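Q: I'm a student working through a structural biology exercise. My instructor gave each of us a protein and asked us to get a predicted structure, then write a short paragraph describing it. Mine is FAD-dependent oxidoreductase. I'm not confident about reading structure output yet, so if you can add a plain explanation after the tokens, that would really help. Here is the sequence I was given:
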Amino acid sequence: MPIRDLRSAPSGTEFRPDVAIIGGGPVGLTIAREFANSRCRVLIIESGGADFEAAQQTLNAVVNVGEPVVRDGVESPGRGYNGSLEWLNDIPPFELRNRVLGGSTHTWIGKCASFDEIDLERRPWLPVSGWPMTRESLAPGLDRAARLLNLGPNLYDERLFGRLHSPPDELGFDRDLLRPFFWQFSHERDRHGEPMRFANVAAELVAANIEILTHATVTAIHLDESGRRVASLDLRSLDGASASVRPETVVLCAGGIENARLLLASTSVMSSGVGNGRGVVGRYLADHPRSTLLQFERRDINAVARHFNFYGLSDKGATRFYLHGLRLSPAVQRREELVNCAAYPVQIHSARDPWAALKRLMRGDRTRLASDLAVVARSPAFLAAGTFRRKVQKRGMMHRSDALRFDVMVEQKLDAESRVTLSDQRDEFGVPIPRVDWKIGPTEVESVKRLARSLASEFVRNGLPQPRLVDWIAEDDDGKAAFTDMAHPSCTTRMGSDPTTSVVDANSMVHGVDGLFVAGSSIFPTPGHANPTLMTLGLAMRLADHLKMRLERRPAATVTSRAVAEETVAVPGI
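A: Happy to help. First, here is the predicted structure for FAD-dependent oxidoreductase. I'll explain a few features afterward.
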């Protein structure tokens, strides 16, 4: 599989693949993998290069006019990154996108979960909710996605208790209020603890029918005169190179902001943008508002952490670890007309944590050599107990921590006025910069407060220490609610059967534009509360199956004629 660079392409180059995939992130690469060694020729078009380059990231600029906003006396909870990824907390809202082969996995921590059944239901109190498929019908695609992500079984609720080697105690939380929820983490197969990087997936994608073109930003989608099919794509590089693509099928996989932006900015035939005849493209922008709910005194950390930590199960010769948290029950969501949300534990490790000190020593980090040696020397019993816990009990490692809190990510009630539009500013290619107006509504705020108060009361009722609610929840002062985005933009090209409230149909094809498909979190009909990667890849598997069936129905002569056309038009040696 060749990786080509647009900057070295001769002027006037024209590519003619069967399928053009816009975006070389996890979604685009997942779809491409499904075509490996088929008779369908695939071109993956990536705006960045094989490595992270600061210049490319300037193309992620937005004009942010909505949430999160700075409020007097309100401290932002941040995105929660720490360690080597702490710098990500400083990236402006909706600009935390990676123009690099491998996309978002360049900087993620691997956190994965699937949506709950209620997330896909039509909920009367949530307008435009409901998915055009069931959770059960998505299961095969999600299982394939889990295998690609090197995950364990796709279980994220109480069913895990019977599978875990040493499960947490079932404390008797009121199931009418709270339900267990788990997350697992995607890791590289040969490097334990290293999140899976899809740049490595790309490197392993060796197939003669698949090509990757880097440093190639798609600046416009041109329709034919009828406005019913894609005629061509314009490609540009920051160095001034340009080319065009004339594909049979296009799959737009550029992310929740960029998918909408590119459709809106492509006005050569349709003045309102591609697929935007009803003005829906860019609407219903959702993310996962994140906030802190409560925290415990330092003396109480161990009593709580033993119930809310990582727990392992054996799966095909490997141990898979799941993080235990709690979510609002479906019953309370229905009764009180709330949205889904889940709380997860966050431990802040002490500077004197023996395991952190031992890890630094083992990897040759001498920055704290004297203190690390002293900490390890004073902690043989602590390290022995942690080893037993990890290797025998298959539980999360014991750490010496200074703080334990519970954070939340909450689903959003869709709002048509929460949206991506185009600003008057333009990027280096002359394409309008996105204008992002993200709104957080009262339903999200009430859901978060309900979860926090339920947690606090149920902790005490079950004999755990009393937590301290954050001030705005304790004082019921919504004006001081503190939320931030999680760089999970969703729903801007949402899936549905009604073109007045959706952009793509149940097969992910843009309404009215044959052969133009969209993939990724932008097609979510509703955003759920869980990290989106597993769901996006499950939907990508589903879309790939649909595209293969669609393209396999073509007569063999069609493929041959396209091959001849490319040999005639494309410039050799690119």
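A: Here are two points you could use in your paragraph. Confidence is low (pLDDT under 50) at residues 559-574. The CA atoms of residues 52 and 451 lie 39 Å apart. It's a good idea to check both against the output above yourself.
Q: Great, thank you!
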